[in-house]
Amino acid sequence: MINNDTFLGNIEAEEAILGGILLDPQAISIVADMLPVSAFCLQNHQRIYKTALELYQKDNPTDLMAVSTKLADHKLLDEVGGTAKLAQLVNRTVSAVNIDRYALIVLNKYQRRQLVQVGHEIVELGYDTTTELETIFDTSEEKIFNLTTNKQDKFQPKPINECLANVFNKIEQGSSPAYPTGLTDLDSLIGGLIKQDLIVVAARPSMGKSWLGCYLANHIAQNENKPVVFFSAEMSEEQLTKRFLSMHTGIDSQRLMHNQIYEDEYDVLVEGLGNLAELPIIIDDTPASELTPNRIRSVLRRISSEKGELGLVILDYIQKLGDRAAGNRAQAIGKYSGACKDIAKTCNTPFVVLAQINRGVEASSNKRPSMADIKDSGDIEQDMDLGLLLYRDEYYKSDTDDKGIMEIIVGKNRNGGTGTCKVTFNPSVGKFTNL
User: Fold this and answer.
1) Model confidence over 351-368: pLDDT tens digits?
2) Which domain holds residue 320?
3) Contact 206, 390 (CB under 8 A)
């Protein structure tokens, strides 16, 4: 019976786990995924367990001879108590049959130590009057969230051989880091929406950027069946929902906005409502003045915890955020773009940010925008991985040959080339199709 029980840890349970690993070649497979190295309260126990884990991860045995040899090779054997200590662990262990129960005891103690540590850190944050209260709340929430989900820090320094192993596994599996957009020519240019990328879609008003955001959200939700979160700092929840409904029903969005439905459209409306209700699209229409990076992080943490890996995040649009009376808007917007890039990386999802183009482009003879035309650009161009600029010739020329055509200009592409593709676009129902 394990009875050496203190608040800091259960030494006898730790010894039973290590003895079981050294005694039974199958034992470590039971605890490897549930028990981190730091769960052991004694540093010597951590070193022994870490050595056994490294052997196990390379499909090598974890018996007494293998572990002691590896410890000796790294000049750690004497530090853990020598071969006598390892032999003592084995001699005290009858079998590894209860190793999973002992692991739960050790894990429980570990989580209590973590909780106490986080509690002390939150107390210190509370006394820190130099930090904004909102930041303290967000940091505190994240610390507790990481404890309750038993989340380990995935951003740890790794030797390149580990990085290469991860890369090779993904290449061998043929898994793609990107989600196709369904627009063939665009996918040929950009390779799809890549996880962890900050993707900026910029255009003048009424050019179709919000519609493209809706299209991408709907496409990823339908085809990847992963949660898509749409932060709408401009449109209300009702207005945005009606845009999605227009896409699913083909009913003119302007009439939907005013709740004007023809009698013969009710069947298709009901069908569209049913289809749209099945999609994992989450809308957050928090007002722009309250939609801070900390709030975005908090919302995404909760959604990913409840619903799993995120498929896409969209923000409409970045220049609406922050204090619009601030003196240096470019600098202020730059902080938001940097935060959005960090969130994309942390959440391992593409983050699409919609942005306005400066009015000055209207005075040019060629009204196709460039990256330099993004309003209050600041650091946006530097932070983005992919920059898409939208242009519709019919908006400026009634006699154009390109009616119903949208040009998507790839102005920046950190992971590939630039260029322009054309798609058909119907602004009354937000329909995009390949040309």
Assistant:
1) 999 988 888 787 777 888
2) 177-434
3) no
pTM value surpassing 0.85: no
Identify whether 358 is part of a domain: yes
Q: Examine the fold and report which residue of 106, 134, 152 is the final residue of a domain before the chain moves on.
A: 106
Total structural domains within the chain: 2
Q: Distance between CA atoms of 309 and 330, rounded to whole angstroms?
A: 32
Q: Is the pLDDT of residue 268 over 80?
A: yes
Q: Is residue 332 part of a domain?
A: yes
Q: Tell me, what CATH number does 221's domain have?
A: 3.40.50.300
